[in-house]
Amino acid sequence: MIETGSSNGAHGQDATGSPATAGENSLESVHTSSLSEILSNQSISLCISTYQAGKVIIARVDDGVTNTHFRAFKKPMGVTASADRLILGTQGQIFDLRNVPSAAQKIEPEGKHTAAYMPRAVYNTGDIDIHEMAIIEDEVIFVNTRFSCLCRLNSKYSFEPIWKPDFISAYDPRDRCHLNGLAVRDHKVRYVSALGTSDEPGGWRNNKTSGGVVIDILENKIIRDGLSMPHSPRWYADNLWYLESGKGDVVACNPDTGEEILRLNLPGFTRGLDFFDHYAFVGTSQVRETAVFSDLEITRNTPVRESGVWVLDIRTKTVVAFLKFTGGVREIFAVSVLPHAFPDIGSEDENLMLGTFVVPDECLANVATVDQSWKPVEKYFEAGNEHFNSGDLKTAMASYRDALAVDENYLPARYNLGLALLRDGSLAEARNTLNDVVRREAGHFEALYQLGNIAAQESQTQQCIAYFRQALKIRPQFVAAEEALNKALKYASEQPQ
């Protein structure tokens, strides 16, 4: 059974802020009911990156239907994740996000989210075209495609090279072999994939249809060659897996004998692979007829190609579920299983980030219990400003009074309360409030100016002139006060003596 999934942006809608509609630029998807059953039964979700759409997508089950939840990043590509950490490679940066369970409880609707990956650090790498990544014993290893090498994340450097193929003679930002994928075996990077073995800038393009290789970096030898654009090597269930993208194939083999255990064709350019239990999750892309993707077996023989994720049962070697994007997303780069049923990425919620704290255990043992209704004075003040600007003066005044109840000396709230009272027509209370501001801060020229306006409304011409002159004495370039003073002086001169 195929179902239409909900595609949500940061606030329960698509990225434009309005309900998504079918079409090339909308973010729409369909999926089989079996996908929702698999994700739900395993209590997992999928993290999917698409640099073409500039999104990281979390596919998760919501009320029995797979929801595709979008977060915006600039050219997101490589993803590697665990229960408590998510590493994301984007254009020129690596994001290190950590799961903060307490933050998950604050995301609306409260109590529904099972994880919240919050930004902990961002590293600037320069434009090195980061491809696949891995977390190994708390270290982040990634493929630096432009410089044809494997790197370790090191805060001292843009990148720290730890390995390059023997056929690459120098570090060069011109992408000599298009190194793109890595596989971890026995807690070490063991295999990598590349689209060619060229040592010339961009040389891999000359034989992209059959020049791809998988390299065993421990044995320092090429173990699979003649491949059509290989991607996403993985070690799983005692076999080497990789995607032969130029053919749309998923392959599993014995790396020692070369025997193929599985070869399965999918309707798209295969890229992005992860496993959970007896399931393989494979990304596919539509592929546009560009110079890079032209003259491949898949572009010649498969006119209708899909963008999405296909689920294989590796025991039966069959497709058992899929998620297809029908608008907006034309390519997939990475697919990573998240061991959480309903996670989110908290990178777009400023209030959530500002109000989330992660501290050492010894500090946590001495942290006071805070009443959840408590707010700092600034929050009441900011709420008052929002209501003031939207024209809701009554609620704005209530928020400013709440701020003053927390801190009676918080002058911005007292002054803005005076403005709100003035705009609401409560001149006597506004005058008392603004006079209180001036008593607390003699140099508050804005309060003096507003007191002048109140005096003008009450036809107290000489008093309003005195207020405007006092404001200008403190701030000589106060244009509004100068104009108001000139107007008041002209009015006074025209009155009969």
Structure description:
- By secondary structure, the protein is α+β, with helices and mostly antiparallel strands.
- It has two domains: 2-362, TolB, C-terminal domain (Neuraminidase, 6 Propeller); 377-493, Alpha Horseshoe (Serine Threonine Protein Phosphatase 5, Tetratricopeptide repeat), CATH 1.25.40.10.
- 25% of the residues lie in helices and 34% in strands.
- It has a six-stranded antiparallel sheet with strand order 1-3-26-25-24-23, with helices on one face.
- Helix 6 (377-389) packs antiparallel against helix 7 (393-406).
- It is elongated, with a radius of gyration of 31 Å.
- Mean pLDDT is 90; it is low at 9-25.
Would you summarize the structure shown here?
This is TIGR03032 family protein. With 497 residues, this protein is α+β, with helices and mostly antiparallel strands. Helices cover 25% and strands 34% of the residues.
Which short descriptors sum up this protein?
497 residues, alpha+beta, Neuraminidase, Serine Threonine Protein Phosphatase 5, Tetratricopeptide repeat, 2 domains, 6-stranded antiparallel sheet, 5-stranded mixed sheet, 12 helices, 28 strands
